[in-house]
Amino acid sequence: MHETPYDDREGVIWFNGDFVPWADAKLHVLNHALHYASAVFEGMRAYNGEIFELTAHNERLHNSGKVLGFDVPYTVAELDDACREALSRAGLTDAYLRPIAWRGPEQMGVSAQKCEIQVAIAVWEWPSYFTPEARMKGIELDWAIYRRPDPLTAPVSAKAAGLYMICTLSKHAAEAKGYSDALMLDWRGQLAETTGANMFLVIDGKIHTPTPDCFLDGITRRSVINLAKKRGYEVIERAIMPEELSDATEMFVTGTAAEVTPIAKIADDHAFTVGDITKTLMQDYDALVNGRAEAAAAE
């Protein structure tokens, strides 16, 4: 099915404090961010008209900007209000929101001291990152062609645009071979994440997840860890080596886009079942984001 290009849609976009027609939210080709990836962004989902973990996302946008050496020129509260209004103007109750902050066109070159920081928020309807069928039976991953970098070589604590180049390349390579996504190792050869989501393994009834010391400690990741602990599951954050995948019976990923999605297979090396722990956390997360968490916890 053909998808409408993102520059040719109806509606409005919040752009530096004002709402402008979607088609008018344009940038000059010499914006610094286009040439040097000096941009940070967030991805949020709204469920039933409420934006999940809205403030946490906008706080992280501010923190990411600071890591890249700039201040986002709107407070977290102002961004929260802008996101809510953007969702309302879009006329959507279930939607994806993309705030982004970047260095503008005032200076070109590696140095960007004179560049002003611009900010935009767009809202659109976006279904599950993976198909409903894939989410039920589990997605299949290939091994990524790139690794997450050493923190001494990149600003890994920021949700920065430039850090996703290796994700795009790795995902494209996996998709070309018929896989849904790619599993990324870090520079040490330890398990890290997929191209856009955190990962969890179930080993002997306990939930293990890589320590996020060179990739994002996702907001969804933290939410799912809390849900797991409420269910009485033991959650262990630690360094995990690829050979330990053989010990796991279940594996799943978490993220704003991916939500909670089981993994069925990694290349021809490992296979997993969509087991009870994964199913329970899928249901609990769905209940949480849709405002039914208390009812789910009582089941």
CATH class of the largest domain equals Alpha Beta
Number of strands: 16
Largest sheet: 9 strands, mixed
Radius of gyration: 19 Å
Terminal CA distance: 39 Å
Keywords:
299 residues; alpha+beta; D-amino Acid Aminotransferase, Chain A, domain 1; D-amino Acid Aminotransferase, Chain A, domain 2; 2 domains; 9-stranded mixed beta sheet; 16 strands; 28% helix; disordered C terminus
Task: Describe this entry's structure for a reader.
- This protein has about 300 residues and is α+β, with helices and mostly antiparallel strands.
- It has two domains: about 10-125, Aminotransferase class 4, branched-chain amino acid transferase, N-terminal domain (D-amino Acid Aminotransferase, Chain A, domain 1), CATH 3.30.470; about 130-299, D-amino Acid Aminotransferase, Chain A, domain 2, CATH 3.20.10.
- About 30% of the residues lie in helices and about 25% in strands.
- It is built from eight helices and 16 strands.
- The chain has helices at about 30-35, 55-65, 75-90, 130-135, 165-175, 220-230, 275-290, 295-299, and strands at about 10-15, 20, 40, 45, 50, 95-105, 115-125, 140-145, 180-185, 190-195, 200-205, 205-210, 235-240, 250-255, 260-265, 270.
- Strands 8, 9, 10, 11, 12, 13, 14, 15 and 16 form a nine-stranded mixed beta sheet that branches. Strands 1, 2, 3, 4, 5, 6 and 7 form a seven-stranded antiparallel beta sheet that branches.
- β12 (about 205-210), α6 (about 220-230) and β13 (about 235-240) form a beta-alpha-beta unit.
- α2 crosses α3 (about 75-90).
- The model is unreliable at about 295-299 (pLDDT under 50).
